[in-house]
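Exercise 7.
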Amino acid sequence: MSDTATPDALVKLRDVQVHFSLKKGLFSGSHGVLKAVDGVTLDIPRGQTLGLVGESGCGKSTLGRAIVGLTPPTGGSVRLAGQDETGRRDRRIQMIFQDPSASLNPRMTVGAALAEPVRLNRLREGRVAIEERVQELLGMVGLHASAAHRYPHEFSGGQRQRVGIARALACEPELIVCDEAVSALDVSIQAQIVVLLEELQQRLGLTYLFIAHDLGALKHISHRVAVMYLGRVVEVAPKAELFANPRHAYTRALLSAIPVPDPKVEKLRQRIVLQGDLPSPSNPPSGCAFHTRCPIATEQCRAARPEWQRVGPNHQAACWRTEELPQLMPKAGVV
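Solution. The predicted structure, written as tokens, is:
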């Protein structure tokens, strides 16, 4: 994306790539490349939430891990507040993982897990000050002070995710990457966690990259939404604009999959069902990567990668048929 620069951006991603070498066997050499992330350029404004959505396997989590520094990019750059953080671990960038059971050490009490990053980053000095910080963190996420003496397995899934949020906050970050942070929770608990994240954002001025596999999860929390397909961003727009006027066929298909609680409306809606599976990132299709599943693809789509089209204020889509799309794929299939 060539013209997505945001003056107040805290995070600037420029042509970020994460490629993995494939091998035939244990002792053989490299055999091809898996392009998990294939050139992503995005800005995340300070104090806002950018929602990142796409099917499983499209590269969302890999991009999140590259931003945090857990998976070093093979190309491009990640800048935070003007500083190059490409491939580095910086305490100002933290991550909330999908499964808190897997990301919390079962042998450490919650208090020890929260105290460790505070001590290692020297954010507080002395045992008393660190313990006070642990109590403060627990209060911030709605947990009782006694939680510090308990182990992760003694908590419910929602409570464990609150511990995961507290651990991310322990480093006093500016950016938090939320990698499917609510998808493993019950619907009622999801809403509680989203409200908590919003409250923390307002209180602490946090910036979020909120990764999800369905647009419904992003409808409440995001300010802007980026849609990702096979390692590339194909559409980005303010949330309201994207939901009201999607200009990429893949975005329209994702929106049509969101259920409507009104049975009468649901019955009348047109569902856009994509044919086939997500292609392999080790052998992506030519031209527009979505053309193998797109119901309105043309020969141009198969032959050439689409250029970015500006279709509205701060709204761009990588599609050859953005102008025709509203007529070819009616909004009846969109929430």
